């Protein structure tokens, strides 16, 4: 059995749900309690795959980067060696959505061939019409960008899908 390791970074403004998405994906848990990430926290998850070029499983090293602006100078260093990034925005805070482009530029500046998935998180707080409008209004027509995905760490909606889709693209 061959296992390949890949690094994914989670980026986005503070309080958008990066840590909650990781906890839902890795530990199958959710907590309403807000814990601010300081610096970086690394989680691991093995994703079984159908055999792809003799690769049986993929070990994701998920780097949860804090979202406070005072540390932005060190973020590019954390992004080095990352095969992909999950950019997270909070659908209830429009400024976090407007910052998606900043996060994309930062990642592609360090990893021009990397893959990006965009998570519009906390969709459990919107009704279905608002979700549809939001997803249709945001289009990122650039290579190597997946999404946007409407996610909810609380309900689990699209959490596994966004991580596994990004993981598979990183193996291409």
Which features does this protein show?
single chain, about 170 residues, alpha/beta, Rossmann fold, six-stranded mixed sheet, 6 helices
Description of the structure:
The chain has 172 residues and is an alpha/beta fold. The chain has a single domain (3-171), classed as P-loop containing nucleotide triphosphate hydrolases (Rossmann fold, 3-Layer(aba) Sandwich). It is built from six helices and six strands. It has helices spanning 18-27, 75-79, 94-98, 100-110, 128-137, 159-171, and strands at residues 3-11, 40-52, 55-65, 84-90, 115-121, 145-150. Strands 2-3-1-4-5-6 form a six-stranded mixed sheet, sandwiched between helices. Helix 5 (128-137) links the parallel strand 5 (115-121) and strand 6 (145-150). The protein is globular, with a radius of gyration of 15 Å. The two termini are 19 Å apart.
């Amino acid at each position: 059995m061959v296992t390949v390791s890949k690094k994914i970074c989670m980026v986005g403004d503070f309080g958008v749900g990066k840590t909650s998405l990781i906890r839902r994906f890795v530990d199958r848990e959710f907590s309403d309690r807000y814990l601010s990430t300081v610096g970086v926290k690394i989680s691991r998850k093995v994703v079984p795959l159908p055999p792809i070029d003799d690769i049986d499983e993929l070990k994701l090293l998920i780097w949860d980067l804090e979202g406070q602006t005072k540390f932005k100078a060190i973020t590019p260093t954390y992004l080095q060696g990352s095969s992909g990034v999950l950019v997270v925005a909070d659908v209830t805070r429009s400024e976090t959505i407007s910052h998606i482009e900043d996060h994309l530029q930062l990642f592609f500046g360090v990893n021009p061939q990397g893959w990006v998935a965009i998570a519009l998180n906390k969709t459990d707080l919107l009704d279905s019409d608002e979700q549809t409008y939001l997803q249709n209004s945001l289009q990122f027509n650039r290579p190597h960008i997946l999404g946007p995905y409407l996610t909810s760490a609380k309900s689990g909606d699209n959490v596994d899908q966004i991580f596994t889709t990004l993981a598979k693209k990183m193996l291409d």
